[in-house]
Specification:
The complex is a heterodimer of chains A (293) and B (143).
Chain A (H helix, E strand, L loop, with lengths): L1 H47 L1 H17 L1 E7 L3 E10 L5 H18 L3 E4 L2 H6 L1 E6 L3 E6 L4 E6 L8 E8 L3 E5 L9 E8 L7 E7 L4 E8 L6 E8 L2 E8 L8 E10 L7 E3 L3 E4 L4 E4 L2 E4 L2
Parallel strand pairs in A: 7-9
Antiparallel strand pairs in A: 1-2, 2-14, 3-16, 4-5, 4-15, 5-6, 6-13, 7-14, 8-11, 9-10, 11-12, 12-13, 15-18, 16-17
Helix pairs in contact in A: 2-3
Chain B lengths: L1 H28 L6 H20 L2 H8 L3 H8 L5 E8 L7 E6 L11 E11 L2 E13 L4
Antiparallel strand pairs in B: 1-2, 1-4, 3-4
The chains are: A alpha+beta (293), B alpha+beta (143).
């Protein structure tokens, strides 16, 4: 009897152990399958999001293709937009943007993404436009002879504009602007050319409702360089830097626009429509946010 | 003593069976087949490596200066257990390689390497051309 009880207990313990072991194996299998599927899903999602990464890659290229560099900056009280470039560019911007479009299509095909970059409006208009999300706009001619800027938000004009111009020549005559002590936009202009005696700075206020202009004439017989600020084409607080199609003139420029924090931009980019179609996703963007996007 | 011996053998046998079952369970819970987590991690690393190389102008500088020193320096700075290589093509069709650099000391057989492509601009006036960098990452199987 005692033997039978011991045998029974032994059998029960062994059987329990066996059942527990089977349970452990089944649980491990389920855990493995679940984890495996999650990791596979994560990898699939990463691959499906390839068009987003392709778009970011293209946006990183545009500053260099257009030979213009735009950036954002911000603190608690102010926001800034900086734009710098060269008039005319050393690069053939019109030719390069078309080549870039064609190359991007081929590159997309090789990574299984259908790419469409629509340059129709840009080529017809002859300008590349960009804007920030605070309604600040700028446009530059494809021949890179002129850059304009304006703000379509009446309340969102910059409070200060800092301008640097460095001309690869020297003027023979200059017509300075007349600043307005009662103006509402602070302007700081720093000019230099190949004659060190010509370097100067001009600081003061302008009124966004009136137009002021600085004009430099060079000995190439062309119309010279004009910097206009104020009311241009009916829009207050605008500006134009124009080389007036001077054939033998080149300059480097930079603009830095200061905005109050409540009208400061958070992103800016070029208005170049880009459409991407991947395996399981499609993106259509009319603006390529190169900063803060 | 006989009973004790039987009990001891029985216990040993039970322990052997138990640990065998535990081993089977643990092996089953490990990922088998494709290591999806590792694949994704390597792709993410390759993507960020390409982004860093482009935005720091390292790639365009390497093309213009015909020097891969900075690219190799970047790759050699990867953690020990990670290997990488960068191959640059002068066109989006991947037909002509400009240069190819691998991390020093890494096995040349790539095995389970993950590769991403990234386009970048090289400006050589008056042209601004699209080049393509192919960045590969794999686990260092040395030591």
């Amino acid at each position: 009897m005692a033997n039978a009880n011991t045998t029974t207990k032994g059998f029960v313990l062994s059987f329990s152990l066996f059942v527990m072991g089977i349970f452990l194996i089944l649980y491990a299998q389920l855990y493995a399958e679940n984890g495996f599927e999650q990791r596979m899903d994560s990898a699939v999602i990463w691959e499906d999001s390839s068009i987003a990464r392709f778009a970011l890659d293209a946006q990183a290229d545009l500053n260099r293709v257009l030979d213009q560099f735009v950036s954002l900056d911000q603190n608690e009280t102010n926001g800034w937009i900086s734009i710098r470039g060269r008039l005319p560019s050393l690069l053939d911007v019109e030719e390069n943007i078309q080549s870039y479009r064609d190359d991007l299509v081929v590159f997309g095909r090789d990574v299984n993404i259908l790419v469409t970059m629509d340059l129709t409006d840009i080529l017809e208009d002859g300008n590349v436009m960009g804007h920030a999300d605070n309604s600040f706009w700028w446009k530059e001619k494809l021949d890179t002879s002129r850059i304009q800027f304006w703000n379509e938000n009446v309340l969102g004009k910059p409070t200060q504009i800092d301008i640097n111009i460095n001309v690869e020549s020297q003027y023979v005559d200059v017509n300075a602007w007349v600043l307005d002590d009662n103006g509402n936009i602070l302007v700081n202009l720093s000019y230099a050319d190949q004659n060190t005696q010509h370097a100067f700075t001009s600081s003061g206020y302008i009124s966004d409702e009136n137009t002021v202009a600085y004009h430099w004439i060079f000995d190439d017989g062309a119309s010279g360089v004009t910097l206009q600020l104020g009311k241009i084409n009916g829009i207050n607080g605008s500006g134009i830097l124009d080389t007036n199609d001077s054939a033998n003139l080149a300059l480097a420029y930079s603009f830095r626009f200061t905005f109050d924090a409540n009208t400061a931009p958070t992103r800016l980019g070029y208005d170049i429509p880009l459409s991407l179609s991947g395996k399981n996703a499609t993106m259509q963007m009319s603006t390529q946010w190169v900063e803060g996007g | 003593m006989g009973k004790g011996f039987v009990i001891a053998v029985d216990a040993l046998l039970a322990l052997v069976i138990l640990f065998t079952l535990l081993t089977i369970s643990l092996e089953s819970s490990r990922q088998n087949g494709i290591d999806w987590a590792q694949r994704e991690q390597l792709q993410v690393l390759a993507y960020h490596a390409g982004e860093s190389l482009e935005l720091s102008n390292t790639l365009s500088h390497a093309v213009l200066s015909d020097s891969t020193t900075n690219v190799r320096s970047f790759l050699d700075g990867l953690p020990y257990h990670l290997c990488g290589s960068v191959t640059v093509y002068d066109n989006p069709s991947f037909s002509t390689s400009v240069f190819s650099v691998s991390k020093s000391g890494c096995a040349t057989t790539l095995g389970a390497a993950e590769t991403v492509q990234r386009g970048f601009i090289v400006a050589s006036p008056p042209d601004a051309n699209l080049y393509v960098a192919s960045i590969s990452m794999w686990v260092n199987e040395n030591g």
